[in-house]
Amino acid sequence: MTPDEIVRTFLDHYHRRDHRTAPESSLIPPPGDPVLFTTSGMHPLTPYLAGRPHPAGRRLANVQRCLRTTDLDEVGDATHLTVFDMLGSWSLGDYGIGTSVRWGHELLTEGFGVDPGRLHATVFGGDDQVGPDETAWATWTELGVPVEATGAENWWSNGPTGPCGPDSEIFVWTGEGPPTGTPSGDDRWVEVWNHVQMRYHRHDDGRLTPLPMSNIDTGMGLERLEMVLRGDRSVFTGDGLRPWVDAVRDRWPLDGPDLRIVVDHLRSAVVVLGDGVRPGNTGRGYVLRRLVRRALTVLWRDDPERGLTELPVDPYADTLRRFRQPAEAGRLRAVLADEERRFRGLLRRSRPLVDRLRARGPLAEPDYRWLHDTHGLPRDLVDGLLTAAS
């Protein structure tokens, strides 16, 4: 299935079950929201999960672009992305986890054609505040899906405080031969879908109090689901990443983690630009700047003459279409070219500073802090590109 076909199949499945399409939000949360970016499909729905009536009703579904800065250090492996599409469904005080799990199993096995024998579920096993999720366990068992109970791994929250609750994660076997082991002990089990019972609010002191109503919040990463349905072990073989992979490989001999970092960060930068952010030294602009400069650091490690203007505009346009953004690809390409020029200038000015510090001996923590706070040089840049070039 193509990504477009996956989205249609997902939304059709929930529309047949009386779900309305919730409007997609920008990566930029509304004024007053303390987070930098929309990190999950549920984030724009937080007021409604807390009890406010939603104008579209109590059953919702949509596709939402998301950005997670917490995954930046993991980008470079085969499955993590900075920006991705999240397929989501919600019950706002309507049906419960048993119904959600049954509908999810039906979609995966009948809608997407996943072999039921390749599924495994995990559920919340309980802690000192909340008991084990017996309903989810019983439902999976009734469906013939093996279940593993865990602790904190099956408790979902969007931060240290706010809406939260036990979740049930669905894994698909991606290894050769019959499935073995359990998701907690074998990484060939790949998580594709999370069904959360959003029932509590966690306070600053750790207390849990019930929300006004018990909700269901599910989220499934489009790129990872596409990977599993294609029988691959990497999201970078999918339709949404391949234009960037091909464009980068056609021009530079990159592979492995280096290729994946450059592809992910440039694609993510385009989506952030498409929602109106521009490079800067603070907040969202700094995240965007870090994405671009980290990609350039990898590119220039072996050849400082490489430049983003060598890449065609086609991957930019393809990414904007896939993330439903009306921005003009050529203009965003020009913004990244300007950021590259700024970065080259920073490197020229910074090399003497690093050389003088290194002449005294190995760099210490105060040196790194000074270079970062005074001159805007992150540690990975100092340890990588500048140190290698000096």
TrEMBL record:
Keywords: Aminoacyl-tRNA synthetase, ATP-binding, Ligase, Nucleotide-binding, Protein biosynthesis, RNA-binding, tRNA-binding
The keyword Transport belongs to this UniProt entry's keyword annotation: no
UniProt entry tagged with the keyword tRNA-binding: yes
A GO cellular component entry from the record: cytosol
Enzyme class name: ligase
Annotated SUPFAM superfamilies: Class II aaRS and biotin synthetases, Putative anticodon-binding domain of alanyl-tRNA synthetase (AlaRS)
Listed GO biological process terms: alanyl-tRNA aminoacylation
Any GO MF annotation of the entry: tRNA binding
E.C. number: 6.1.1.7
All residue ranges annotated as the Alanyl-transfer RNA synthetases family profile domain in the record: 1-390
PANTHER family membership: ALANINE--TRNA LIGASE, CYTOPLASMIC (PTHR11777:SF9), ALANYL-TRNA SYNTHETASE (PTHR11777)
Family note: Belongs to the class-II aminoacyl-tRNA synthetase family.
Protein name as catalogued: alanine--tRNA ligase
Protein species of origin: Micromonospora eburnea
